[in-house]
Amino acid sequence: ESGERKAKVEKMFGFMDAFLKNDSFSLQKDILDHVEYTVARSRFIFDDFEAYQGLSYSVRDRLIERWHDTHRYFKKKDPKRLYFLSLEFLMGRSLSNSVINLGIRDQYADALNQLGFEFEVVAEQEGDAALGNGGLARLCACQMDSLATLDYPAWGYGLRYQYGLFRQIILDGFQLEEPDYWLNFGNPWEIERVHVSYPVKFYGTVEEEGIQGQTIKVWIPGETVEAVAYDNPIPGYGTRNAINLRLWAAKPSDQYDMESYNTGDYINAIMDRQKAETISNVLYPDDRSYQVALQINDTHPSLAIAEVMRVLVDEEHLDWSRAWDITSRVFSFTTHTVHVEALEKIPVDLLGNLLPRHLQIIYEINYKFMEELKSMIGQDYDRLSRMSIVEEGAVKSIRMANLSIVCCQIVNGVSKVHLDLLKERVFKDFYELWPQKFQYKTNGVTQRRWVVVSNPNLSSLISKWLGTESWIRNVDLLAGLRQHVSDPDLQREWKMVKKVNKARLAEYIETLSGIKVSLDAMFDVQIKRIHEYKRQLLNILGIIHRYDCIKNMETSDRRKVVPRVCIIGGKAAPGYDIAKKIIKLCHVVAEKINNDADIGDLLKLVFIPDYNVSVAELVIPGSDLSQHLSTAGHEASGTGSMKFLMNGCLLLATADGAIVEIMEEVGADNMFLFGAKVNEVPALREKGASLKAPLQFLRVVRMVRDGYFGFKDYFKSLCDTLEDGKDFYLLGYDFASYLEAQAAADRTFVDPEKWIHMSILSTAGSGKFSSDKTIEEYAKHTWGIEPCKCPF
Ligand code: C3B
């Protein structure tokens, strides 16, 4: 019957290139249909937000069409699939990105125009989907875009959190957190799949049962929660393919606590059911074919390993060695940190209570691993205990990284430096055992989102000078800009684009803070999570130093000062006291500087609240200089730098994480580098108190300590972290070279031709840092998957 239906549909509509048409009239009609019938507003009267909704639903229709065709095609070809597991995806907004990837942005803009709306204004109505924290989560979003664009048969899996990352509110310069009710105004980008749901079991006991002479383990759960799928189509650029990001929401299960209903405790039973929605759930891939690769993004989803073993052994009744053989061949793991103390551990008591069968399985894996290890290295108990998946001690715990390394065929770092640190420090023992397991894939970001969507002017300029738009799919072509770098026309146009973007950013700053900034000033930006190792404090101390110098100058000398607008943005984890103090310090310093009549346009400091993906899209194209100040050896990669680089912003940075590779691509003389090197840091730390910080450093720290900016007591603990011998992140040691790098940036800025030259070379050298490159590497060397392109 379905064959007959298919034949009928094909006969009637098969001649169409696409089921839905993209001419202006069809688009207008579709938007109005959705306004009228989906949003239920009158097609004659609706506002910008309703226009956004109608528009988005009509885009979604087109996404769904491609999504269906892609999946039908995948099914037909049945290639090896990749399942990409991550607990965080930082997607940001979807509208502009979707219409650009679908290749119908201009058509939509035109259709909206006909209806009396402006595309940019309507697009601004969209909220930010922030189901993640920072770099790791945004990386996944970029990688999904690349997987779709490069036609890989991939699925993303994550969680559909009810609340995204907290909203940052600044009150009197202090950070406050508010919940992010991101679903309150609906989410046109997802499709709820009420029929795609799986029971997820928790608690209970494991019992043994005899079946056909064999003893098998049966887990009798104490509670069950239902995982319901929400599908988010991810369109590729320049292809018909649209892949799926499936996010799971936890819902109460029908099987949940029937007992209480039966005993008549109806209200409490309902309340208990609601608790289910607060529980995070585990993953169930919906395809049981073994032709798969499973990628775990950091250790957060690593329980999936034990879960796959459980399903194979307990439910499919495979013997252990066969199950192990499959599991250890399908999983691969990427780690994103260099901090040993940040490696995830789960207390055995907690895990045993929540997931008793999984704990047994992990013990079994560990037992077998320890036996194997003993046979290889003998009775080296120190090493055995370091490598064990189970950590003994006051709180007996499962080391999720060790579990992941033991069970995965490949362990990837995210930059060259990161891999070195994994080999030499973080996972040294494992590296010595299995050197072939350890690899790295340089992180990348998608040029679609970070140039085409967020910097359309630069995007057009690049296409014009390269004579093609192909760089949007084939990023190597960006290198072609090098041959025009000295062309005065390109330089002039490049400068113009920057100026327009700066004007847009300046307007935003004025709306936010009332501060008017000069477009002639250097826009100097540091945006990222607030963390001690990322050293926003170094930046602020540098700004204090600059302020202090200007104050102490002869008035006539002030003319030589290069005017700066310093922009800082980022969220501090709610419980991270020192990071919150850094935010407050930024505000009090800004207050002082911005209101000092002696200073005027020479220096401004602006803190941008609630930094998120959409804010980044606005700020990055409008910045001249960006700062990446992590103490060497602390940033696994750092993907913000790549977004700035693509947009032709110059980098002021330490030789850490991805910066080392960026240096190789654009040349150290096109950047402002400073600070101790990765291999120098351990020895410098050893020296501790005998490292004398320079006088300028002591002076600015003293200003903060003595209450020059107020809040003396409040900043005491922050200043204490900078004392001799306590300055773990080496701010004092790096201060002098930091100031030199800043001075070099100033000297370059007053030579606009040179600056533009460096700026063009930055974009030209950014090709390596496209997530397209990263994904191609993973596909080839880790996942073993091939493109599967749905015909147009
Ligand atoms: C981050 C790292 O801090 C960055 O250096 C790196 O560029 C990105 O991951 C992506 O690889 N990271 C994060 O955002 N969250 C973590 N829990 C660990 C690392």
**Distinct small-molecule ligands in the complex:** 4-amino-1-beta-D-glucopyranosylpyrimidin-2(1H)-one
The overall strand count is 24
The major β-sheet equals:
9 strands, mixed
Mean pLDDT: 94
Radius of gyration: 28 Å
Tally the helices: 31
Task: Please give a structural write-up.
The protein is α/β, with parallel strands linked by helices and 792 residues long. The protein has a domain at 447-769: 3-Layer(aba) Sandwich (Rossmann fold), CATH 3.40.50. It has 31 helices and 24 strands. The strands form six sheets. A nine-stranded mixed β-sheet has the order 7-10-11-4-1-12-13-17-18. Strands 21-20-19-22-23-24 form a six-stranded parallel β-sheet, sandwiched between helices. A three-stranded antiparallel β-sheet has the order 14-16-15. Helix 12 (348-354) crosses helix 13. The longest helix has 30 residues, at 48-77. It is globular. 47% of the residues are buried. The model is unreliable at 280-290 (pLDDT under 50). 4-amino-1-beta-D-glucopyranosylpyrimidin-2(1H)-one binds next to helix 7.
How would you summarize the topology of this molecule?
Blueprint: H1 2-13, H2 24-38, H3 48-77, E1 81-85, E2 89-92, H4 95-102, H5 105-114, H6 119-123, E3 129-131, H7 135-149, E4 154-159, E5 167-171, E6 174-178, E7 191-202, E8 205-211, E9 214-220, E10 223-235, E11 242-252, H8 258-262, H9 266-276, E12 292-297, H10 303-315, H11 320-330, E13 331-334, E14 345-347, H12 348-354, H13 356-377, H14 381-387, E15 390-391, E16 397-399, H15 400-407, E17 410-413, H16 416-426, H17 428-433, E18 438-440, H18 447-453, H19 456-466, H20 488-513, E19 522-527, H21 536-551, E20 564-569, H22 577-594, E21 603-608, H23 613-619, E22 625-628, H24 640-646, E23 650-654, H25 658-666, E24 672-674, H26 681-687, H27 695-705, H28 712-720, H29 731-749, H30 752-764, H31 771-783
Parallel strand pairs: 1-4, 1-12, 4-11, 12-13, 13-17, 17-18, 19-20, 19-22, 20-21, 22-23, 23-24
Antiparallel strand pairs: 2-3, 5-6, 7-10, 8-9, 10-11, 14-16, 15-16
Helix pairs in contact: 2-3, 2-5, 3-4, 4-18, 7-31, 10-11, 10-13, 12-13, 19-20, 21-22, 21-27, 22-28, 27-28
The protein binds 4-amino-1-beta-D-glucopyranosylpyrimidin-2(1H)-one.
